């Protein structure tokens, strides 16, 4: 994709996914949601993608849903929102299923569905000046984009309720302390730090990353016996993989591993 509301670009094994409506705070309308679903589907079909970097064009990550388009819908508002949520949720599901780690690089603000996309990323780098807010109930709506699933797992139920009911804005440092972001970096260093992290992960054992993500997320719905069985099955598959064999051989030889992602 060379242009449009979502850009999908490749730099070797790293895919850069950019929300591209900077003049509208990268707010999500029907066209952006559909483009995001298409891009996520393309990533799912690209078996050589080994890290995904999710960013926003301009000085904001994402201002959430396009409230101006909501207002223009009048009595058709339910239809408008449904038209956004179907592809948006498809995109959220596709990104969650990727073996490749998804890194969000966030600056400016992340509100509403922007915060949902951030919460669904595997790792989040936030510029120090970033502010995060749920914002949904402030306009009489409810959270979407998976935030009601991700937030309680990331910050706990009490804090998830506080964010959702009071629309308290978090600074980047507060979000770090609450467990909503992975690392806070200087504003000027965000792109460099995010690119470096994406390159590091893209050189890693991608299939092992994917199974690790699935195990960790499923652990909250399983008992210990079920989780141990899943770990045993996953470890058996990892031991058969090229990267598993390479990792063991490299450890014994005391050299850096050369992972291929398979």
Q: Which key phrases capture this entry?
A:
2-enoyl-CoA Hydratase, Chain A, domain 1; 51% helix; three-stranded mixed β-sheet; 262 residues; Lyase 2-enoyl-coa Hydratase, Chain  A, domain 2; six-stranded mixed β-sheet; 2 domains; alpha/beta
Question: How would you explain this protein's 3D organization?
Answer:
The chain has a six-stranded mixed β-sheet, with helices on both faces. It has a three-stranded mixed β-sheet with strand order 5-7-8. The chain has eleven helices and nine strands. The protein folds into two domains: 6-202, Alpha-Beta Complex (2-enoyl-CoA Hydratase, Chain A, domain 1), CATH 3.90.226; 206-253, Orthogonal Bundle (Lyase 2-enoyl-coa Hydratase, Chain  A, domain 2), CATH 1.10.12. The protein has helices spanning 30-45, 67-73, 77-97, 113-120, 147-155, 157-166, 172-178, 190-202, 206-218, 224-240, 242-253, and strands at residues 6-11, 14-19, 51-56, 102-106, 109-111, 123-127, 131-133, 170-171, 183-185. With 262 residues, it is of the alpha/beta class. Helix 1 (30-45) runs parallel beside helix 3. It is 51% helix and 15% strand. The mean pLDDT is 97.
